[in-house]
# Entry
Amino acid sequence: MTINARHEKSNLFFESVVVGFISPMQNLFLSVTKSTSKVLDHYFFLIDTSRENVRLLLELNRLSKENNELRERKKFLERTKKLVEYFDGDEKPYVIAEVIGYDATQWSKMIFINRGTNHNVEKNLTVMTDAGIVGHVIHSSTKSSKVLLITDSRSAIDSLFQETRTSGVTVGTGEKKCQMKFVPISAEVNIGDKVISSGLGGVFPKGLLVGVVGDAVKQKQELFQDITVIPAVDLSNLEEVVVILRDKEGE
Amino acid sequence: MIYLFFSLLLFVLFSIQTALFETFLLGGIAPDLILITAVYCGIHFKKNSGIWVAILIGFFQDCLSGGLLGVNSLSKGLSGLFFCALKDKIIVEGIIPISFFMFVTSLVDGMIYFLAMTSLLGGQVKAGFFFSSVILFGVYNAVVAPFLFYVYKKAKGWVYFKFPSQALKVI
# Structure
């Protein structure tokens, strides 16, 4: 810069002419080279791109599968965390089980869980979620068990209303709802009243939520009310359940 | 080999029935693939073998159900027996006959279960709810049966192609 400033001089005429002639040729060469390189890169060397594309697609599939698995795992942990938090305060031993299947027929309301005698799951143990009672174990093999849901027509739970302590029997109907029987016509029952297990019968411990009253009809000529109980647990959408195990003392 | 193929088919069938069909519920009802298979066996299996296969798959269904052991063996066995006895006298080909017979068989199957449930097991099922469910069950089976029959027909063709001598003895 210093030198230029000191010895400033104009371009030679000859230099300008040569540059003027050469520069279009240079531009031409440059554009030809660029386009050739472009052609080679985008067409002739597409094999590499194609391979790369396949590899990336495989990688993408693998990652999206992994992502899906992790999401499922996260949701599973969230759900089981809720269960564990709920049951950790309880002194009774329990085991978390996954629902692995449903009844092979239409008419029986039953689920299969992936815990059996290997995990101390036996017949007549209570199965529930943090929301309430699901049912009880009716058969247990080494690695799986059958659970009869409270909506099955053979299910019966001796229950009482949480507020009034009036007792009755909650039976399954084969539908999505249960019925509470043997509640005297004189008893005060309101829609939304909570129904809990009474502890009688030896299967369900006392105080577990069975459901809430959905409807109560009093007919003058009847001795008992017609009470519909909506199960506290959404039985059509079960994924994990908790089996309440027997204490060491056998309670 | 052919028995291995049947065992595998039954394994897949029961897996679908117990694990996946909860997602296809329509009004709380799902089609009974086992019943459709029992009817197919009754119609298409040689001599009386359809009856025994129907009883066998009914027994497996009993094992995978919370109901009384033997109810499904009985109902599926009766379905197998009915179609095995009448297969030379009636035509069960084409969508309408298959659907019709499947609907009737579903009603009978449901009735057997209803009687067993109310009389032997002491279950308290509302008759109104049960009959509406049975009709829906019949319709659902009637819709699914032609498709499953078609699949079985294709499978039968494949079995004949792969194991011709063994297939001739059974189906």
